[in-house]
Amino acid sequence: MTREATLQRIREALGDKVVDWFDKSEKRSYVEIRPEDVPDATRLVFRELGARFQIATGVDTPSAIEILYHWAFDKVNLLVTIRTKLDRDTPEIASLAGICKGTEWIEREMWELLGITFHDHPDMRHLLLTDEWPEGQYPLRRDFVQPGKEGGEG
Amino acid sequence: MSFAVQALTRSLNVFHLAGSACNNCDIEILDALTPRYDLERFGIVLVGSIRHADVLLLSGVFNKKSAIRLQHLYEQAPKPVVVVAIGACACAGCMFRESYNWYGKISDYIPIDAYVPGCPPKPEAMIAAVAKLIAKLRGS
Amino acid sequence: MGKRTIIPIGPYHALQEEPEFFKLYVEGETVVGLDIELGYNHRGIEKLSESKTYEQTVFLVERICGICSTSHPIACVQAVEDAGGVEVPERALYIRSLIGELERVHSHMLWLGLAGHFLGFNTVWMWVWRYREELLNIMELVTGNRNHYAMMKPGGVRRDIKDEDIPTIRKTLDGLHGPLELFRDAVSDDPIIHARLKGVGVLTPEQIVDYGALGPTARASGVDIDVRRDHPHAAYGLVDWNVVTATHGDVFDKAVVRIGEMFESMKIIEQCLAKLKSSPGPVDSNPKEIPPGEGIGHYEAPRGEVFHYIRSDGSNRPARHKVRAPSFMNVLTDREAVLGATVADATIILAAVDPCYCCTERMAARDVATGERVLTSRELIRLSQAKTEQLKKELGAEGPRLNLEAM
Q: Domain of C118: which CATH number?
């Protein structure tokens, strides 16, 4: 399947689930969908189209918490990023670990660094931070204040 | 000079502890043991347990998880033990001292006897540090 | 079944970008489970990066890992260039590939040496590391430092490779071909290594795909992915080379793939040097600002794909910088690979994805019921070495028949 055909297949299968489609270049596409459509989209790109899961990026923006799932189509030199926006006050989404095992660790990481809740994750606990890390303190949030640095720069 | 310190300066048993390092210092430490530098010819050997160690080599910054382990290990070391900080991270935190996961300056919770700066320090620098340290311990 | 015992491995491990704490669950000699705990090396680099300028960030990501210390910078500057649509001069692309491949050879040699150490072949360790020094000499000559080369910057490279240095580099590399062939033969001819590594720690292609494993770990299982070929960047689309794959997915094939890659890397280095000699030009396009947007950069590090994502808000610092090192995906496969293995083989299986060595020097087995220490790190390596000795006797072999003329 060519690069164009791959993108066309994604476009057709997702249909009106697509909130926004942005082709950064011919090798990089960004597709925004709603959080509830992420598992279906994952089955499409991973199971049906055989994409490789690169990683997911959690981003805290002023309006929403975004998750970007990066998928690589190695045969056609194409990277497709599936973007979804979560509510900033109660960010939650279904875990993808049941579909693609490679997502298990990154979901744990996003949970502890950004405070995103992943429903039905098989093994949710701290990955990088200590178990004693204070609850509700998420280092990658914009409003995170480093202990001991209140008021100062940093 | 006490007998214990005198004995310590002969064949040094080194225990190497990497904190939250980038591994470069650790590779250079191992490198110092391989044929080009061959520290083993001076009787310096790496040991697998802190309980056999005369020298504790620290590399990397220590974060909130690894610093606790460091303190436990230091307590387990037979005294006297010489502590050497290898590399910019162990000496001063390098660029990671602004991090939310940095535990703090090592010398605040463990006494350090020698600092070897560099990113990473060359094996020659480590050898020079060991030689100076031994001379200092012997009081010469 | 016997009593279930936990063998903790780690948590400190020094030789890899991601420290792990392995808990091996064993019944008798057989491994029945594995739990992996991270976090001993977490330095908050993604957050720190948001306080650095694009130029400074490169120095920061260089210090993620001392062995991949040019892979992260290449991926990072490519992400910045992707976000800003920055063009890179051709000569800089060749220099990037050159440095990247030199690093790959030294990294694979490092792995080979330590793998030998764990199998009881300390000779292999010492020899390989002695020849690895030659590569570090080249690095020092070209970049000024043995490690942490500080060569990459958004828009190009930080310094050119001088014409007068090229003959010295060539001569050093020519001297390496003999030893590399020796190491290849030492692995492929030696009955002990066959006996220790074949059929050990097998990963199936399905497991590789499911976990998203990368690099030599994937290629040894027949999963033919290599970012250098699949998503051409730097000079990899401009030179002639092959992707090395194998089919069995065991530790032996991982070694075969890595050794094969060293020869391919030498081919790439040779072509880059020839190109540098013949085509002078600028090495830096000096981008002044990065417009708002986002970019992805990835690079095939010695262990697999390194991934960087950068979001720019138009300032001189990244608004978000995501880093994913290959071991993050590879290490999780261990929990499949060690199942059913013996404790003596566990060290080399865990080392096969090239994740961690120093942790194995801090292994200690504890009996769960009593908490009593029953097996030290020394003992584990001794166990592994004893198995090699035993096999030597059974096979009536003395070790590798080496061609010393090649040295």
A: 1.10.645.10
Q: Which residues of chain C have a CB within 8 Å of the CB of B119?
A: 63, 148
Neighbors of chain B by Cβ distance (3+ pairs < 8 Å): A, C
Provide the residue-wise pLDDT of chain C in tens; the chain has 407 residues. Answer: 457 777 766 555 433 334 566 777 877 778 787 777 777 778 888 888 888 899 899 998 888 887 888 889 999 999 999 999 999 999 999 999 999 999 999 999 988 888 887 777 777 888 888 899 999 999 999 988 888 888 999 999 998 998 889 999 999 999 999 889 888 888 888 787 888 888 888 889 999 998 888 889 999 999 999 999 999 888 898 999 999 999 998 888 988 999 999 999 999 999 999 999 888 888 898 888 899 999 999 999 888 888 999 999 989 999 999 988 887 888 788 878 887 777 777 777 777 666 533 222 233 333 333 334 445 555 666 666 677 677 767 766 555 444 545 44
User: What are the φ and ψ backbone dihedral angles of A143, each rounded to 5 degrees?
Assistant: -90, 10
For residue B31, give its domain range.
3-138
Nearest-CA distance A40 → chain B (Å): 36
Domain that holds residue C374: 4-41+334-406
Residue C288 CA, chain-centre distance (Å), reads: 33
Specify whether C229 is located in the same domain as C106.
yes
For residue A16, what is the domain's CATH number? Answer: 3.30.460.80
Question: Are residue C301 and residue C400 in the same domain, yes or no?
Answer: no
Asked if B30 is an interface residue toward chain C (Cβ–Cβ < 8 A), one would say yes
In chain C, the number of structural domains is: 2
Last residue of a domain, one of C329, C345, C360: C329
* Contact flag B100-A130 (C-beta cutoff 8 Å): no
ipTM of the complex: 0.91
The verdict on residue A139 lying in a domain is no
Residues in chain A: 154
Range of the domain at A49: 3-88
Rounded-to-integer distance, Cα C299 and Cα C231, Å: 9
Q: How many CB atoms lie within 10 A of CB C270?
A: 16
| Sequence-ordered strand ranges (E) for C158-245 | none
Number of domains chain B contains: 1
**CATH label of the domain that carries residue C341:** 3.30.390
Q: Determine the Cα–Cα distance for residues C278 and C334; give it in Å rounded to an integer.
A: 46
pTM value surpassing 0.90: no
The DSSP result for B36-70, as a single string, is TT-GGGGT-EE-S-GGG-SEEEEESB-BTTHHHHH
Q: Is any Cβ of chain C less than 8 angstroms from the Cβ of A21?
A: no
Residue A76 belongs to some domain of the structure: yes
